[in-house]
Amino acid sequence: MRQALPTDELLRSAFADAQAMGDLPRYRVLYEAVRRAIFSQALIPGARLPSTRELARDLGLSRNTVLSTFEALLAEGYIVARTGSGTFVAHAAGAPPKGRGRRTAADVARAAALPARSSPEELSKRGLRLARFQGGRRLEILPMCGPEADFTLFPMKQWQRLQSRQLRHGHLQLLDYATQGGFMPLRRAIADYLRTSRAVRVEVEQVVLTAGTQHSLDLCAQLLADVGDTVWIEDPGYWGARCIFESCDLKIEPVGVDDEGMNPERAPRGSRPRLIYVTPSNQYPMGVPMSLARRRLLLQIAARERAWIIEDDYDSELRYSGRPLASLQGLDAGQRVVYVGTFSKVLYPGIKIGYMVVPASLAEPFNSALYDLQRPGQLTVQAALADFIERGYFVTHIRRLRQAYAERRELLVEALRPQLGRLAQVTSQPAGLHLAIGLPEQCDDRHVAALAARSGTTVRALSEYFIGPALARGLVVGFGYTPPDKLITHGRLLAQTLKTAVRN
Ligand SMILES: Cc1ncc(COP(=O)(O)O)c(C=O)c1O
């Protein structure tokens, strides 16, 4: 291979290009220039570099600058120094591009310039699917007043104190990776909480801490199913779960939902699930609880098929009337349910701490795979959270949230009241952080959502949450993280939109 340009000319041009990268120290500019020229093979393996003195003079740099650059390049193996004969581009520093002949000076100059942008064709097929899905943008239930969420209900002062207490005490062990399923006192606190408030059958060893529900679902999909296995998911259902299962190349089978939750009779005939993903406490996004009969039926199916049920109990703390519902896991004598919970709804979304209660036989495999796949950490946050629960702040906070959100939901329903009745109805139970509103079959709910957006109110069209044909029309309206005054204003605006859109 021959070099297209003399080395000194090439370095001058690469240095000028690297200067265009912005405000970098001079040694860094030179480092980038030489590194890129080597990487792109504008400077070929074995090429002799000018002496540091010559290069400094040529580029108007101090000799120390050039010396530090050469030291870094030597340490990283881009160049080698041979005593008495000079400095050369290392032979292992770049592999020649296959199938190419000699490169022109223009090729060289282009390759030595700024990094190439990757184009979508370079994504894997899975990557392309994931990038095109755009679930968050289309389907995430946002506060109806817009994307600016209001977090003022969160007890920030208490939380700050507990976090800084952990850091102040400086338990050095908390700086390590989280082994063994996470911080033990937090696992214990979660087990105690779930036993008493969610009727979950749990020993502390079964609790696995994760980085939230998405992470838990990913682990379930990877550890409990193989490529091509069937997963039943609710239709309409949670797009986040669908996205994870698709990314693991599982076969998605949407199963219709009615006012008792997922209805297995609507599954394709002869379908044999390996995983069954459900939100029994508060079906997402319809907001109905699963009936006892359905819970029993699903457990029977799981036992018969040796399938795993994944119970996503994402917001069950937030029920505003009636008794709290017991978990599906608590009814299961057959150890076929993985219970998945999160602190995203009851504390704040960005905390990204979730947990799973796995059947006892899965605890060890889940923990060791979690460690190998992820090297989990965040022990200081986990420790602060354990403190938060043990001191009773968690229960107090949930009580406050319940009260505040019961009132806010009521404010929204009141604001919508003039339009509720024959044409639009609240179909979700008093729970969670969103309202599901049913609209007549012939109504184009996407059009209604678009109209609402024009008046500054964010709502989602129910039909968007279906994987199969959209069998219901409606709106999904987030009242979480929205202050009361804004709920009233936007509730009234939405009522106006419904009035014009639905009657026409
Ligand atoms: C159905 C459902 N499950 C779980 C979650 C929480 O996910 P994570 O714990 O990954 O934040 C959400 C959040 O919106 C959700 O809608």
Report the uncertain regions.
Answer: 95-106, 111-116
Q: First CA to last CA: what distance?
A: 74 Å
Ions, cofactors, ligands: which are bound? pyridoxal-5'-phosphate
Instruction: Please state the CA-atom Rg, rounded to the nearest Å.
Output: 29 Å
Strand proportion, as a percent range, falls in 5-15%
Q: Briefly note the structural class of the backbone.
A: alpha/beta
Largest sheet: 8 strands, mixed
Outline, from the CA principal axes?
elongated
Percentage of residues in helical conformation: 40-55%
- Side by side, the strands of the main sheet go 4-11-10-9-8-5-6-7
Q: Name the average pLDDT.
A: 90
Please provide the count of β strands.
15
Number of helices: 17
Q: Can you describe this structure in just a few lines?
A:
This protein has 17 helices and 15 strands. By secondary structure, it is an alpha/beta fold. The strands form 3 sheets. It has an 8-stranded mixed β-sheet with strand order 4-11-10-9-8-5-6-7, with helices on both faces. A 4-stranded antiparallel β-sheet has the order 12-13-15-14, with helices on one face.
Structural overview:
With 504 residues, the protein is of the alpha/beta class. The chain has 17 helices and 15 strands. The chain has an eight-stranded mixed sheet, sandwiched between helices. It has a four-stranded antiparallel sheet with strand order 12-13-15-14, with helices on one face. α15 (393-416) packs parallel to α17 (484-503). The longest helix has 24 residues, at 393-416. The radius of gyration is 29 Å and the shape is elongated. The N and C termini lie far apart (74 Å). Bound molecules: pyridoxal-5'-phosphate. Pyridoxal-5'-phosphate binds at residues 212-214, 238, 240, 279, 284, 312, 314, 342, 344, 349, 354.
